[in-house]
Amino acid sequence: MSRRLRGNGLPIKIGPFWISLRSVIPDLLRHIAFFYAQYETAESERFFDFHITLKNSGGLRRWVKPQANFLLDEYAPFKPLPYVHAFAMFEWGLNWCIATTAHHYLIVHAAVLDKDGQGIIMPGVPGSGKSTLCAAMSLRGWRLLSDEMALLDPVSRAITPVPRPVSLKNDSIGVIRRFSAGAELGPAAKDTAKGTVAHLRPSLLSIQNASITCLPHAIIFPKYEAGSDTNLVKKAKNRALMEIQENAFNSHILGKEGFDAAKSLVNSCPNYSLQYSSLEEALVTIERILEDAEVTT
User: Which parts form a coiled-coil structure per UniProt (predicted)?
Assistant: First the structure.
């Protein structure tokens, strides 16, 4: 794996996307080996959706406080970051690649998980507790489709998985370590633009079933509030539609097609707001939602 990363590029299949990744940055090589060793690769030349390179920024920076540049087909969309942030930069950069190109989907900023063919979509802004709740669910046997984006087919409403490491920030890292002794977390990157960031390795179940779509059975808008009781309330469909549109990366590009897809989504299954502070109580509540969910096909 290291040899191919340093050479012509390591092919990795992540959900529906084929990526060719090149880098000689030691910290990134270690992270890729830890998080992506179980993903499908290719031995021969093929079509790639994204040719990604992370390289040093050159000049004096090569020797003093070295920095990493993210390149997509030799285009650098971001400012360089310290070497120790290279893996976080790769993950953020891949988010950008997908969100700015995969317009055959309505792409919603949301975590998506599945149990027994029943999908849960959890849209959320930073600080909502979405990724923490997503990580906890994945550690309790839920199949992870994504902690960052729901790839929704505008016609069928099927959600295409793109399972990747779950990004945890600041206090959430310790919360998940305490929640499960089996949580496989990578090293924390400190002092990033988002604070301290660490990633949770997805389950083998999630990786091996990355080609299996699911239909949403409920939409849950989570909100973490320290010390609060667990409070689940039905959300009006017009309000849910507005928030789905606000959390969609490409609704402005898809136009009416995107609006119709979002409307069909919220009309097809129940919508809830979930306030929580206890992960255990939140998980029990979500299980009950699935038991009661009525879905329109």
Answer: none
pTM of the model: 0.93
Domain residue extents for the chain: 2-99, 106-292
Please list, in sequence order, all residues whose beta carbon lies within 8 angstroms of the beta carbon of residue 281, skipping any fewer than 6 positions away: 230
Helix (H, G, I), strand (E, B) or coil at 295: coil
Residue showing tokens 């920030």: 169
Check: CB of residue 33 under 8 Å from CB of residue 20: no
Q: Which of 17, 85, 74, 76 is nearest to 50 (CA)?
A: 17
**Calpha distance 190→201 (Å, rounded):** 18
Whether the CB-CB separation of 235 and 265 falls below 8 Å is answered with no
Per-residue pLDDT of the chain (297 residues), as tens digits, is 888 888 889 999 999 999 999 999 999 999 999 999 999 998 767 899 999 999 987 666 666 788 999 999 989 999 999 999 999 999 999 999 999 999 999 999 999 999 999 999 999 888 899 999 999 999 999 999 999 999 999 999 999 999 999 999 999 999 999 999 999 999 999 999 999 999 999 999 999 999 999 999 999 999 999 999 999 999 999 999 999 999 999 999 999 999 999 999 999 999 999 999 999 999 999 999 988 866 565
CB-CB neighbours of 236 under 10 Å = 12
Give the residues across from 68 on adjacent strands: 56, 81
3-state helix, strand, coil in the chain (%, to 5): 35, 30, 35
